[in-house]
């Protein structure tokens, strides 16, 4: 693991990684759905082979006890972001190994390719303050705006209304879960293990709206 960070039980971390040479790692609906299922099934003390559960919905797939707590997630065309809490010793490292290995094997088989899919193992930042941790909920969930407004992180969002509407329809993050939408993907996150910054979905949406309207956002 090429990073100067040690994971400690009870601590929070921003985990992210992208495709090697910045290549796209999610090419279609099937790729995104596979990764979403792996977010759920790789978080288990027992091995889960998705090939044994074809046709089952996410919450119908059995798994063991969780090895990390997931607070937020977001998929982008060539990278992903996760907000994780170390639940058991070596939990994050084991979860990420299962997640990245499982997805790489699926992607390479599907696309008849060989070699590494991701750029290194994965990157991690220790969220060592309450302010830094709370900021991640905005940063992670705002990322999809780049799909409709490239370069927005270094300038004002060009069309705030378009950005808000896009986030409300973007299914491949935990944004909708925090907004209070009922869906199977909500089973991926464990809100009880994270600070209660947002008592309602409206509180979360107001926070996101504040960030969208922030004129001098710097990513």
Describe this structure in words.
Helices cover 35% and strands 12% of the residues. The protein is α+β, with helices and mostly antiparallel strands. It has seven helices and four strands. It has helices spanning 29-41, 91-111, 130-142, 145-148, 160-169, 175-178, 201-212, and strands spanning 12-18, 68-75, 79-86, 123-126. The protein is globular.
Supply the key terms.
4 strands; globular; 219 residues; alpha+beta; 7 helices; 4-stranded antiparallel beta sheet
Order of helices and strands: EHEEHEHHHHH
* Fraction of residues in H or I helices: 25-40%
Number of helices: 7
* Spatial gap, N to C terminus: 26 Å
| Averaged pLDDT | 92
Give the biggest beta sheet: 4 strands, antiparallel
**DSSP strand tally:** 4
Stretches with pLDDT under 50, minimum 5 residues: none
What's the short story on this structure?
This protein is of the alpha+beta class.
Mind sketching the topology for me?
Elements: E1 12-18, H1 29-41, E2 68-75, E3 79-86, H2 91-111, E4 123-126, H3 130-142, H4 145-148, H5 160-169, H6 175-178, H7 201-212
Antiparallel strand pairs: 1-3, 1-4, 2-3
Helix pairs in contact: 1-2
